[in-house]
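Entry 0007
Protein: DgyrCDS10338
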Amino acid sequence: MDFKWEEAEECLRRTVSSISDEKIIDLLHTYLRECYVLARPTLQQVSSLTVRLAQQPVKTVKELRDGGKIKVDMTTNTKKKENVLKLEQFIRDSLKQEIFRADVTPLAEEAERRVYKIFSNELPMNLIRKKKEIGNFILACAQLVWKMTIQQPMLTFDVSPPTFNPLLHEPLVPNYQVKKGKRIAAYAIPILRGAKDKKLYKHLGIFYHRGTIFGVIGSTTSLFIYGTYYYMNRRLYIGDKLKYGCLLNNENDIVLPYQRRPKLEQRLCDVLSSSPTNLFYIVNGQKGTGKTRTIVELIKSRMSSDGNETWMLYVPVRSAKVFPKDLYFAFNLKLEWYLKNLLNYTMNNILESILEDIEQATKEFNEQTGKLPVIVIDNFENLEEENEEFVRTLLLKANEWAIRNSIKVVFVSSSNYSSCLRLLENHQTLWKRSGSTLTIRDLTFEESFSYLNNPITIFDEDGNYKCKLKMDKSRICEIISLVGGRLEYLERFKKDWILGINFEETAQQLIEKENERLLIAYKTSEKWKIMIKIGKSKDGIFLEDIHKEFSEEEIHNLLILGVLKLKKSNGKLKLKFDSRLSKRVFEERMTK
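Output (structure tokens):
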């Protein structure tokens, strides 16, 4: 075929700035097809390499050299090694999305310049003659791969000779004017088009590009195996885990006896029950008030009953980045997790996928038992701070499940004014399905005294009973006077007492930590003015009153810092010190 590269390049230059995305894609089809004919067979190897690079980065120079069939002597010339590394970096850079969004023309010029520099007098002569074609071909391949992966719903290939190119995207069904064996692909395409998991099947479609019976059989078999696994085992795993309960990543270092709180436990049991309520719930409370410990103990008590179907899943949010992974691993769906990451799914799509599977898996069990599975998402504030898209997805799904009465979701958060509450304010339908917010507060004086006064059993090195230790009552009163009923601080004092650390040292460490928080507020005059105003009040200030003088951002920063908290009083939000220790340290600082 007689092809003039300069004419095609000029055509691309003239039209790229004025035509739509669809026309650009069509133009690139022609552009790549002509490049393929011009530089075949060398460019066929480069295109194959580019396909792999679009799916996963180059790992070694050896893969570039052997996989791309670019013959370079890697042992005799150090400079040649460097040039191949440059080529590797160039292809990798070309596949970055930021570059793909830019205009094609300046990138083509830059590709020509860089490839000429890399190839000049270093590679075999048949590549040197085609340096310009190769540079622009790689660039165009990268452009098209990005557009097909991100924007197009389905990837298919033209498999008809002699101008076969694995990167060409045909909007209609591919041309099957091929010989015996290839027509089998026509039966597999409807499977691809009807599948929900389009991105997986898009990449499996690469099997077809070899145009052989082995590729067709291989890809069709892969689709069948994956479909069988997806619709059978996957949901059975989910149903089994929910049925008998699952405590995921419960990494709390719990060594002290559990402090029973009967009234709170009764309220939590009502929230965590499997009885249909058409509601989802939010459990709120300051950090260190004992939310996690109480909920975990209640779930454990259900799981410990032999033969009892718990129907509970407890998932603490370590961070937004690993939350979807934790959900998949909770149900032993590790293969699904790695597969979706390999295919570059977004984290929100991965999360939506597992939530949909949970819903489908529980449908049959709901009909049989009449009970609802309960999903407890702890440390929800970590999602609020890092990824509000996850928050919206989970709240909307919890609302949908509440309407259908299929799954009950309980969000446990330590934030003062969480984004889930802000989202609820903006969506009246969500408010209708949200049960009364359960707030977990500090221990009362009696509960705090009972917790510290409980004796600790000591064992010797062989595990034999040795004695029981009990804290001095006067010391207990001093501790409660300093930190109030904040369970986190009470546990710290009790642990240190068991380890032989004296009271003064523990108290000093806690005071220094609190001083560090106050010092951050002290550096900003507006924040410190808010602290002074609240310090002068006896029982805090209503939020609407303090909004008249100070910005919402300054107040929000103090809440995140953990020196202030919001508390409901007479139907209004009141701003107060986070704990008795915070107030005491502030007062000591003001007297200096």
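Curator remark: The two ends are 90 Å apart (CA to CA). The chain has a mean pLDDT of 65.
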